[in-house]
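User: Earlier you gave me the apo prediction for this protein. Now I'd like the version with nicotinamide-adenine-dinucleotide bound, so I can compare the two side by side. Same sequence as before, with the ligand SMILES added.
Assistant: Got it. Here's the input I'm using:
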Amino acid sequence: MKNSRRKFLTSICMLAAASAFPIQSFGFDKSKKLKIVLVGTGVRGTSFWGKRLVDEYSDILEFVGLSDVNSGRLNYAKEYIGVTCPLFTNFDEMLKKTKPDLVIVTTVDATHHEFIIKGLEFGCDVLTEKPLTTDETKAQRILDAERKSGKNLIVGFNYRWSPYNTKIKELLMNNTIGDITSVDFHWYLNTYHGASYFRRWHGLKDKGGSLWVHKATHHFDLLNWWLDADPSEVFAYGNLEHYGSNGPFKGANCRTCEHKGNCEYYFDITQNQRMMDLYVANENHDGYIRDNCLFRDEIDIYDKMSAQIKYANDVTVNYSLTTYSPFEGWRIAFNGTKGRIEASLDIPYNINTNVDQAEMHAKEMEQNALEEAMTENIIVHKLWNDFDTVTVPTEKGGHGGGDKRLHDKIFKTPEIEDPYARSAGIRDGIMSILIGIGARNSIETGNPVKIADLTDLVPLAKRIKSTN
Ligand SMILES: NC(=O)c1ccc[n+]([C@@H]2O[C@H](COP(=O)([O-])OP(=O)(O)OC[C@H]3O[C@@H](n4cnc5c(N)ncnc54)[C@H](O)[C@@H]3O)[C@@H](O)[C@H]2O)c1
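And here is the structure of the complex with nicotinamide-adenine-dinucleotide:
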């Protein structure tokens, strides 16, 4: 693969929040590889932003440091990713010693802001995993730091890049059903993937901001991008009725639980070598239990969520998120002045193949797997006409093919103009989390929340390209 550092930095520029910065302002040296550090060497950091970058783009970039609070996981990460760079349990020390060009942030959600802000202040570009952060105060601090720094911040929104989601964008951009007036959007997490959030740090609001933020940031980003408008108000309901203290029994963790035989949710982590190496082998360093009980009392996030969202262009959206569905999938319908578009993925009653619900999420996270050619449909139904079926070739691995396309855009083909504007920066990152943060605040207060009251960003009827 032939790539130049110049191309990479162009891509940063194109993807970035403050994309007003001309490429020359980076002052890069074409003869050197891009120096990258990564903080947060968990499953996402070591695989997608670690090993895959080394495997695919080593000709233009090099890891100069890895950091994590868990020194055991950090050692494992070095070997798994296949790098020789130094390791740091202290992020500040890593910045000072390695002087990177780019910081990649893949830590627990509630800590992203700390590394984003320090990275920007140190004079680095920053690429963060979603969600950008978990509350409005941190979001404002990130905005302030990004404006002061003159550096770039990219949010890794991979879902936009899957061919199916891109096709929906194209149909809407082409005004296929006129102006959109309302949307129904419903996302179903199954009893494997949905349940897994409650086993992990994601089950605590102060770690992941609840699934309104951790998970729904993907969905709200898709909505904002598809509708090409900013959200202006949200009202929500939500409750915890299935997991957490609602369970019939509980144990310390699955491995040692006396209810193994009668718990529908029993999860045998010992069958997964990667999880054993990543988490179980390193429990002694930080006490983090990856196969924790999903009925433990400390869980404080919602397991059913429902919101009404109003957009600055007057589109209204009905959204829901379920976490204990028998199948994993989603449905969306756009109502427009000239018709209706219906799309859905993975609804078992609509497809011919048999999907293993237990394996589904693992498949999504898999990178570079060989898979069968598949197609999925989108229904376009114009007023007074019969409906048309648009068939889209799809894939499952790497988040519906979104993961590798996002990487390629950043590292391989940055110069190619993207007609769908799939690159996301700080404004996109913030607008998507503000819906979830607003929904959470709405449940807590019982009142609708205005997006404009959360940060100094003003919602616009027509989105602007990811600048402040
Ligand atoms: N875009 C996607 O589809 C996608 C998929 C999976 C995860 N993610 C995101 O990636 C991030 C990491 O998720 P994960 O599933 O890899 O979680 P994980 O638990 O496997 O890894 C998190 C890592 O961060 C480390 N960490 C926690 N606090 C830290 C701190 N203060 N300083 C340094 N290290 C710290 C932990 O020790 C752990 O190694 C999350 O933000 C998550 O939302 C995104």
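For your comparison, keep in mind: The chain has 17 helices and 15 strands.
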